[in-house]
């Protein structure tokens, strides 16, 4: 059993890696003189501004004639990290992939993909938990698009929505309004998963256990339950006894609470999406510690197998730096393909679709297809 790589907190301090016990006061400050730099000390030791004419004005340095305009507190444009200052300024963002946008209601969008391929099946069910307690890094987007890509590649896939927001259910065209049974009933009421798993219109072999807002209370209800961390593992084991599934994905909420813990106990592999942005790596070491705790007690089969770089913006140096840093620390686990920042990816869920059926030829769809292909290839190789 290999343990996940450990993080050396001493490196890349400007890329969001936490530095134990050290606070870098420069991080995040705009690189401009502070308001207080114009202050001087007078003879009595009191602080006064250079333009002040009050007590102690004689001891202040020679003043410029006329009132000088106050320096701007912040330069125009976005805040920049210190290592960014000599970078070519960002151009006004061009709209990527300028295909005409279909009307949501009137245009029927094809659910066929041009990238359909046949992926190798793993020897046994691969169970992934897609986790990162940082919010908005692409957990749901990656879960649904990888699940759909593998299903469109001919494999049977089950996605379990563990987030009360139900975003994965939305993206896969599944109703998750109040009263729809799903993960809550399985986890809290002990119902059979098979009774509540539904087919996604995205691919013939893609099934979903939807999440409703009820799941928001599950975290608290679980606290007083027996074997609370293993309930999902038990439910999934029972389901897999009667159903042949190649891939299971858990889409986790942005926390390391009992919902995520249940997924970590039920899964074999962890997939961490990392957004190629400032502070992207913050929290990864906390996640690694949680993984180690779970491995040490509740699930010794768990391993960090896959890291996926998401929302990569090739126009910024920062994105490339984050990607390099992640590859340095997770050399084996990081997939070679990165998921670009793409308008098509972000608008697909509003049509209840994945980007693979919404715009199959877009760079986002092709990237997720390649990532899925690589995951399937690694799974087939490992099990061979
Ligand atoms: N590659 C991408 N390009 C552009 N937008 C993206 C991309 N990936 C995700 N997004 C958008 O970023 C937002 C956050 O993504 P997503 O919901 O997948 O993150 P998450 O980690 O699941 O969030 P949460 O922590 O809230 O569950 C969404 O609006 C999504 O559409
Ligand atoms: Mg999500």
Structure description:
The chain has helices at 139-152, 167-171, 183-188, 218-223, 231-242, 258-266, 284-297, 317-329, 343-347, 355-358, 363-383, and strands at 39-41, 47-49, 126-130, 157-161, 198-199, 206-209, 247-251, 269-275, 303-310. It has 384 residues and is an alpha/beta fold. Residues 8-13, 20-64, 71-92 and 100-115 have low confidence and may be disordered. α1 packs across α11 and α5 crosses α6 (258-266). The strands form two sheets. Strands 5-6-4-7-3-8-9 form a seven-stranded mixed beta sheet, sandwiched between helices. Strands 1-2 form a two-stranded antiparallel ribbon. A hairpin with a 6-residue loop joins β5 (198-199) and β6. It has a domain at 126-379: P-loop containing nucleotide triphosphate hydrolases (Rossmann fold), CATH 3.40.50. The chain has eleven helices and nine strands. It binds adenosine-5'-triphosphate and magnesium ion. Residues 139-140, 163, 167, 251 line the site of magnesium ion.
List keywords for this structure.
single chain; 384 residues; seven-stranded mixed beta sheet; two-stranded antiparallel sheet; globular; binds adenosine-5'-triphosphate; binds magnesium ion
Q: Please state the CA-atom Rg, rounded to the nearest Å.
A: 25 Å
Say which CATH homologous superfamily of the domain at 126-379 is assigned. P-loop containing nucleotide triphosphate hydrolases
Identify the CATH class of the domain at 126-379: Alpha Beta
Detail the poorly predicted runs: 8-13, 20-64, 71-92, 100-115
